[in-house]
Amino acid sequence: MDMYQVVIKPLVTEKGTMMLSEGNWVTFRVHPDANKIEVREAIQKIFSVSVLQVNTQIVRGKRRRFGKTMGQSKAWKKAMVRLKEGDKIEIFEGV
């Protein structure tokens, strides 16, 4: 899998900014089939940082109503990545 297909987009949330300030953790939405090793290699190559730890989580889709019928949004995968002290990613610094 191409490294640009592994990382879909960064997640900038209130909890994510607290994790960034407390322990240098950043969060990304990643491809559902990507494993921790692929996520680590992709982040290191794309952003030129050192990754210490990768945690992944499957986020279940929410139930939605469309008129009388119920539907559900798709599940997606989230990766929390811990960076080496002193390493930063520009996207998260503007928050």
Can you walk me through this structure?
This protein is of the alpha+beta class and 95 residues long. It is 32% helix and 37% strand. The strands form two sheets. The chain has a four-stranded antiparallel beta sheet with strand order 1-2-6-3. A two-stranded antiparallel ribbon has the order 4-5. It is globular and about 50 Å long.
The main sheet orders its strands as 1-2-6-3
Number of strands: 6
Helix coverage percent: 25-40%
Number of helices: 4
* Overall mean pLDDT: 93
CATH top level class name: Alpha Beta
Percent strand: 35-45%
Helices and strands in order:
Blueprint: H1 3-6, E1 7-10, H2 14-23, E2 25-30, H3 36-47, E3 51-59, E4 63-66, E5 69-72, E6 76-83, H4 90-93
Antiparallel strand pairs: 1-2, 2-6, 3-6, 4-5
